[in-house]
Amino acid sequence: MRRSHDALKPRELQSCSNCGIALPTHVVCPNCGTYMKRVIIKDEQAAAE
User: Fold this and answer.
1) What are the residues facing 13 on neighbouring strands?
2) 28 and 34 in contact (C-beta within 8 Å)?
3) 34-35 and 38-39 strand pairing
4) Of 6, 8, 18, 49, which is most buried by a Cβ count within 10 Å?
5) CA 2 to CA 18: how far, in whole Å?
6) pLDDT digits (tens, 9 = 90+) for 12-46
């Protein structure tokens, strides 16, 4: 009973606003590189063109 607050809670997932894949909250999308509708990681191929 003493350590009932130490149980692991399931991670909450949200969908990416740009590409729609499921990912944890407060994380940059590894698929498209956006966070909160801002481009954080620019596409290297698009920069080369």
Assistant:
1) 24
2) yes
3) antiparallel
4) 18
5) 44
6) 999 998 899 999 999 999 989 999 888 888 876 55
Element (H or E) spanning 45, and its range? Answer: helix 44-48
Q: What is the DSSP letter of 44?
A: H
What sign results for the dihedral spanned by CA atoms 20, 23, 27, 31? negative
Secondary structure of the chain as H, E, C letters: CCCHHHCCCCCCEEECCCCCCEEECCCCCCCCCEECCEECCCCHHHHHC
Q: Of the candidates 22, 21, 4, which has an alpha carbon nearest to the alpha carbon of residue 13?
A: 22
| Residue whose pair of structure tokens reads 């909450």 in the numeric block | 12
pTM of the entire predicted model: 0.61
